[in-house]
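Running this now, will post back.
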Amino acid sequence: MKKLVTAAAALLTLMLAWPAAAQFAKPEDAIKYRKASFTVMGAHFGRVGAMAAGRVPYDAKAAAENADIAAAMSKLPWAAFPEGSDKGETRAKPEIWKDSAKFKEAADKMQA
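Update: finished.
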């Protein structure tokens, strides 16, 4: 089962990364992509966090599967912050574009 979940996470990663590799046709596409990436990642982090906080019973298998998916998803949203995607339906802060080196450092740290 773990292999199936890992394979599914890898496939999902590739499917979601495909548009980023081809660049985004419109800033709205980048915003939708990164929102979707953060939503899926947050859902899986939340499941692990609920176990860690004792809000739900601990299940080692489920925790590992959710952590694997969250780790795979953590690589996706960073390509979706191109110039011009700072306007529209986004909560991204202006500092992302003003200090992109610091933003990249934080993204790299999250994935480490």
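Residues 2-111 form a domain with the Four Helix Bundle (Hemerythrin (Met), subunit A) fold (CATH 1.20.120.10). More later if anyone needs it.
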